[in-house]
Amino acid sequence: MSDGAKPGSILVVGAHAADFVWRAAGAVAVATARGARATVVALSYGERGEAGDLWKQPNQTVENVKRIRHEQAVQAAEAIGAEFRCLDLGDYPLEVDRAALEQLVALIHEVEPDVILTHTAEDPFNPDHPVAHEAVKKARMLASGAGVQSGFKTIKPPVLYAFEPHQPELCGFMPNTFVDITPVFEQKKRAMEAIASQTYLQKYYAELAERRGNHARRVSGNSTIRYAEAFQRLLPAVVSEL
Q1: 156, 160, 216, 229: most buried, per Cβ within 10 A?
Q2: Which domain holds residue 110?
Q3: Domain count along the chain
């Protein structure tokens, strides 16, 4: 995802606190290993619909779930060399009003990412994910001046990718970029293990990384790839030659 010219900056925006872990922790760890700045942002903690294990505990409260989810996400982010932030907008349903959108634009201005990763535009099983996608797409355009000169600060338009959803075939996800995460797979495992509120996803995403590693080997001919993450580049690449 980088041309290798500079360490750069990568931004991952998920609807819920742990979305970055399952879908992009490997790519983030690869970026930070080469010196890039990585910021992972959750629009909500996923306290209502993404913390099932925590709600099994007696006398549980929303605020306690948020606290635990924050601690888990920070630990996961640290495992891959990233900084975690949460806008705490609430989940199921996630709603992004103008004030929240402006927060996201300001954050993009602050970190000036070369690359942004977020959800797909469609997800028939999760109402929050498309909301996050739309907010990120709009914030990216506003932060970069929507391609024109503006009366406010703008940045170079970041490359935009969708990370892999849980049901790719039903979300219109067409992987066209694979990141070899073999050297950092143990970091991704530690990040996943930190999310003790969703233990049921750890095995699934470890196996997915192995399957995507097989696809990446076949595409590239690189027999050393064991684990990979899949992404869909959402805007055309501009190159000087093929």
Answers
A1: 229
A2: 9-233
A3: 1
